[in-house]
Amino acid sequence: MQDFSIFISSLTSGYTPVIGGDYEQKDFAYIDLSGNNTDLLKLEVASSEAFSVFIDEFLRNRNKKAAYGGYNELRTLYNRSELFNNVEANRNIHIGLDIWVPAYSEILSPLNGKVHSFRDNQNFGDYGPTIILEHIEDSRKFYTLYGHLSRKSLEEIEIGAPVKEGEKIAELGDFEENGDYAPHLHFQVMENIHDKKGDYPGVVKKEDLDNYLKNCPDPNLLLKI
Q1: Which of 35, 54, 61, 186 is most buried, by CB atoms within 10 Å?
Q2: Cβ–Cβ contacts within 10 Å for residue 26, how many?
Q3: Does the pLDDT at position 1 exceed 70?
């Protein structure tokens, strides 16, 4: 069987929107949020408001409208949350793609599919409202996850409901409902979801990284931002 990352890359031929509105490929800027970014040392990362200002200034200085990045990125910013920063978990490597745009931006499905599951993951530092879609392309099943949504996004959604490519499926939440983050979408691709519903790890520990990277390839292979 074809390698999953190659398969995912083959599904789209160019930039594929997951954020609604008039965003074009040229409107995005890559941002490094790893421990190598010295600018983060000056920031009070425990404050979602301060982080929003940091993102806004980053985009304004580059004359861009959206920031993206974070796949396979070692981040120290998770130290603020006991969900990740504890002896048992010790998770700090991000395996999704983050896209930083304003709260209540429309979220689109990049492919045809159906609603697999949804859940409000309410822990501090968690996804907040989350939707998982199931896709079948060339007889191969896989999943996409959308985290940090608004609670309104979960009000009328139904498991099994069909979704078309480019269709609005949700909107981003603000920090009061999205796990206490500056507004952004966590987008992740997964070949196997096992028994998970409305949730799947997006931050993992080093010991588990290789297995997760095989199951969760770089989402930008699909979006091509």
Answers
A1: 186
A2: 9
A3: yes
**In this structure, what token pair is assigned to residue 120?**
């409000």
| Domain extent for 217 | 4-223
pTM score, whole prediction: 0.92
List, for residues 153-172, the tens digit of each pLDDT value: 999 999 999 999 999 999 99
Contacts of 29 (CB under 8 A, 6+ apart): 58, 59, 62, 64, 66, 67, 68
Widest Cα–Cα separation across the chain: 49
Q: What is the separation of C-alpha 21 from the centre of its chain, rounded to a whole number of angstroms? A: 18
The CATH number linked to 172 is: 2.70.70.10
C-alpha 148/C-alpha 181 separation (Å) is 8
At CA 71, angle to CA 65 and CA 77, rounded to 5?
80
For the chain, how many structural domains are there in total? 1
